[in-house]
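Input structure tokens:
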């Protein structure tokens, strides 16, 4: 990827990690955030070259940064992404490429591509990386190496933009890249991400014993790590994908009921078969990937 100027809008955990990785690769990175402390923190550490606060008092600086950027990364919450871009698309440089880190696609992509200027292209993507903490102060570009990067183009996207998104993933350090539709993305995310968070949250809410921390082992800690959750972000993600998530919860309920039924009936053979099947499927995650999926 040729060096270019990136503007990161929303300098949180992922936005900060993008900035860190891209700066190391020789790109000039600027940032816009509602928190002045986030901009100051990133400037002090050389993660960004320039930045400003989105507070209504620095519109000139924001116009300057957006107008200079060849690529803009939107690290905004789902409910904020389209309104923010609609209001500020006039500040973008002609020919600019816009991408995002948003964890849902159907609720965002069609809206954005429906109003975006024809001389600017939005290529949606989703880095499957994160932690149970937030803020640029916790940014770490090492998150990307073991993670997956998802690109969700539509018929409005050009092959050149899809190729650029793949180059961006490689520049950030992602080893695994997949290209899929927005519908496929949201269905898959409903299972591998949102359902897992729903299970972790439910586990922590199913038992209020304050002494659990004194008794638990690593299995409970590992399973509930993601229950430390950003309630604003994750409520938006859940509601934006409620149909897919509801279907996945029902599928999980059926699987848990099946296990419960075998246990109640004393079906040892059936229970052991569930264990063997889960072990075999989980081992697939431990194998080296044979190569990137680029459907």
């Amino acid at each position: 990827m040729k060096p270019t100027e990136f503007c990161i809008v929303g300098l949180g955990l992922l936005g900060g990690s993008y900035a860190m990785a891209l700066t190391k690769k020789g790109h000039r990175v600027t940032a816009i955030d509602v928190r002045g402390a986030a901009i100051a923190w990133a400037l002090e550490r050389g993660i960004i070259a320039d930045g400003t606060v989105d507070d209504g008092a620095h519109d000139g600086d924001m116009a300057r940064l957006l107008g200079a950027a060849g690529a803009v990364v939107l690290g905004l919450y789902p409910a904020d992404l389209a309104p923010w871009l609609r209001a500020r698309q006039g500040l973008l440089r002609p020919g600019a490429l816009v991408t995002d880190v948003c964890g849902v696609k159907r609720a965002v992509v069609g809206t954005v591509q429906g109003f975006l200027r024809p001389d600017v292209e939005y290529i949606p993507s989703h880095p499957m990386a994160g932690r149970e903490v937030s803020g640029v102060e916790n940014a770490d570009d090492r998150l990307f190496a073991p993670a997956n990067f998802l690109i969700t183009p539509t018929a409005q996207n050009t092959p050149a933009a899809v190729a650029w998104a793949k180059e961006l993933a490689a520049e950030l350090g992602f080893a695994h890249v997949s290209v899929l539709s927005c519908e496929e993305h949201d269905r898959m995310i409903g299972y591998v991400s949102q359902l897992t968070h729903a299970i972790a949250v439910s586990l922590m809410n199913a038992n209020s014993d304050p002494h659990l921390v004194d008794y638990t082992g690593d299995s409970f800690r590992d399973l509930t790590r993601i229950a430390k959750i950003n309630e604003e972000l994750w409520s938006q993600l859940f509601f934006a994908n409620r149909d897919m998530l509801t279907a996945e919860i029902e599928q999980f309920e059926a699987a848990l009921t099946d296990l419960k039924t075998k246990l109640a009936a004393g079906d040892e053979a059936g229970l052991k078969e569930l264990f063997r099947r889960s072990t075999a499927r989980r081992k697939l995650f431990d194998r080296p990937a044979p190569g990137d999926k680029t459907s």
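Residues 185-285 form a domain with the 6-phosphogluconate dehydrogenase C-terminal fold fold (CATH 1.10.3660.10). The chain has a mean pLDDT of 94.
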